[in-house]
Design goal:
This protein is mainly alpha-helical. The protein contains seven helices and two strands; from the N terminus they run ααββααααα. Helix 3 packs across helix 4.
Length: about 250
C-alpha cells in the first residue's frame, strides 16, 4: 500500500511539470506574437537587417580592394623580375661577346707569334716565330718606331730561357735523354725522378722507382744525412721535419 501511494505521488508530480512546461511555452508564444505585431519591434527588426546588410557590403568592398591591391603588387613584382632577367641576359650576352673578342685576339696573337720549343743537346731553347707579315706591314705604317723596338726584343727572346742541365755522367749521359720526347723533365714525365733532376738527390735513394742521373759535378750543396738517416726507416712523416738539434746529433 505504501508503494502504491508513492507511485501515485510520483505520477502526479510528473503531470504537474508537464502542464507547467506547456504554460511556459504558450506564454512565450503569445509574447513573440505580440512583439512581432508591435510596430516598434518591427521597426527595430528592419533597422537591424539594414545594418547587417551594410556591414556585409562594407566587408565585400574591403575584400575586393585588398584583392585588387594584391594583384597589382604581384604584377609589379613580375614586371620587376622580367626586367632584371632581361638586364642579366643583356649583361651575359655582352660578357660572352667580350670573351669571344678576347679569344679571337688570343688566336690572332698565337698565330702571329706562338713560341717554339727546341731541344738542343742538354739545353732547352724557346724561340718565337716571326709575326704575321700583314700585321708587320700595318704596324710599320703606323708605328715604325715601335716596330723597330719589337724586332730588337724578339732578337733577345731567341736566346735560351733556361739553365742547362747538370753535366753529363759517363754511366748515364743526359745527352741521350734530351733526345727523348719533349715531356722529359716535366710533370708528364713519369719515367724520371723530377726531384732528383732538380736537386741531384732523392730521399728514397736506390728504392726510388724512377730513373736517377748521377752527374760528375753538381751545383747543389748536399748535407750528410740530408735525405737518409738511421731514423727514417721507422719514423713517420713527422720525422722528416728537420730541426737544428737533430742535425747536430746526426752530424
Amino acid at each position: 500500500m505504501w508503494s502504491n501511494r508513492k507511485e501515485k505521488r510520483k505520477a502526479l508530480k510528473k503531470l504537474k511539470r508537464k502542464e507547467r512546461r506547456k504554460e511556459i511555452a504558450e506564454k512565450e508564444r503569445l509574447e513573440e506574437e505580440a512583439r512581432l505585431n508591435d510596430p516598434e519591434e518591427e521597426r527595430k527588426r528592419i533597422l537591424l537587417e539594414q545594418q547587417e546588410a551594410e556591414r556585409i557590403e562594407r566587408d565585400r568592398i574591403a575584400f575586393e580592394e585588398r584583392e585588387k591591391a594584391w594583384i597589382i603588387k604581384q604584377q609589379q613584382q613580375r614586371d620587376l623580375e622580367e626586367e632584371q632577367q632581361q638586364l642579366s641576359q643583356r649583361d651575359l650576352e655582352q660578357h660572352e661577346s667580350e670573351l669571344e673578342e678576347e679569344e679571337e685576339e688570343d688566336v690572332d696573337d698565337d698565330d702571329d707569334g706562338r713560341p717554339e720549343i727546341i731541344w738542343l743537346g742538354n739545353e732547352i731553347i724557346i724561340q718565337k716565330k716571326n709575326p704575321n707579315p700583314l700585321l708587320l706591314l700595318h704596324n710599320h705604317n703606323h708605328h715604325h718606331h715601335h716596330h723597330h723596338h719589337q724586332e730588337q726584343h724578339e732578337h733577345h727572346d731567341n736566346r735560351p730561357t733556361s739553365n742547362p742541365f747538370p753535366p753529363e755522367s759517363p754511366s748515364q749521359p743526359l745527352h741521350n735523354v734530351a733526345q727523348q720526347p719533349p715531356n722529359f723533365g716535366t710533370e708528364l714525365d713519369k719515367a724520371h725522378c723530377p726531384f732528383h733532376l732538380k736537386t741531384a738527390a732523392c730521399r728514397f735513394g736506390d728504392r726510388c722507382s724512377r730513373v736517377h742521373f748521377y752527374p760528375d759535378k753538381s751545383c747543389t750543396l748536399l748535407i750528410k744525412n740530408m735525405y737518409n738517416g738511421p731514423g727514417l726507416a721507422w719514423e713517420q712523416d713527422e720525422g722528416l721535419e728537420a730541426v737544428a738539434q737533430s742535425w747536430l746529433e746526426e752530424l
